[in-house]
Write the structure tokens for this entry.
Amino acid sequence: VHCDLYRLTKERDLTPLHVFEYLENPNMIVCVEWADRFPQLWKTYPRIALEFSFRNKNERRIKIRYFTGR
């Protein structure tokens, strides 16, 4: 499941998307784009965070981090 949170501004905006139902399902892989808009929501879930940045015109950097959740 892909969830793009770019246009969302309030936590309640996530409810109709069923994001937390997907996260609670062990058979689902959930990709959350713009998750940093609501950083406090993901702390209890194991996750892999990908951070993309531009180093220069020809070079990109991808930072990969794993979090176990609480």
